[in-house]
Amino acid sequence: MSLPVVRVTSYVTPLREGGSLPGIVEGDDLGTYVCKFRGAGQGLKVLVAEVIVAGLAQALSLRTPRLVELDLGADIARYEADEEVQDLLTASVGSNLGVDFLPGSFGIDSATSVPPDVASKVRWLDAFTANVDRSWRNPNLLVWHGDVWLIDHGASLYFHHSWTQTPTDSQRFASATYDSSQHVFQGAAPLLVDEECRSTLTDEVIAAVVAQVPAHWTEHHGAYVEHLIARRDGSRAWLG
Q: Which residue, 225, 202, 204, is CA-closest to 213?
């Protein structure tokens, strides 16, 4: 099942702390979302990674904000005064990714108490998906209503950036090592949750997660499933 589609009714404000300049928007479902734009950075592949890794996190009982497909009309860009934002909106007309906005949330710091099983699962997930963007410099973890929420997974699944006409060999990703030396939960114990996580992410679960990616974002759904299954069934070397 693909993501629900929501039409953007207004652009509220940019989030300038993000390198790709995501923005807060409102939708016709009365929801407020952080919009990840197709016209920013490395384009749709980043959005694909966001959807897949968030889906895997949810399957592992980790909290991530609700995702939707945001339909951005050309009229939204027309009334934006900021030239940089207007260019981004114009380049992103059509389908984009919406991440449910969590009002009042704040980033974790070293004083935040995180349950050991949550820390271990986050560390396992990041190694599994080769997420290089979870350091103390940029944890991409929010606290909302006392719980830890995972966000911003566009830096994961690096293998698809080398795809041109055909996907790369899944076995290269299956055996690729993961550097956890800068990870925010570097001291966690992913081996303790390894068996649970592998058994949870069955072939069917992985296929269902990948199926959430809109068909017009990629034609390689099968290749993503193949790469993730190959890594799950590979050695534990990538746990770091």
A: 225
The pLDDT tens digits for 162-217 are 997 778 889 999 999 999 999 999 999 999 999 999 999 999 999 999 999 999 99
Looking at the DSSP assignment, which residues form a beta bridge with residue 26? 10, 32
Query: Which pTM value belongs to this model?
Result: 0.96
The Cα–Cα gap between 84 and 72 comes to 17
3-state secondary structure of 146: coil
DSSP 151: -
Of the candidates 27, 19, 128, 122, the residue with the CA atom closest to the CA atom of residue 71: 27
Contact by Cβ (8 Å): 148, 142:
yes
Roughly what angle, to the nearest 10 degrees, separates helices 203-210 and 221-232? 150
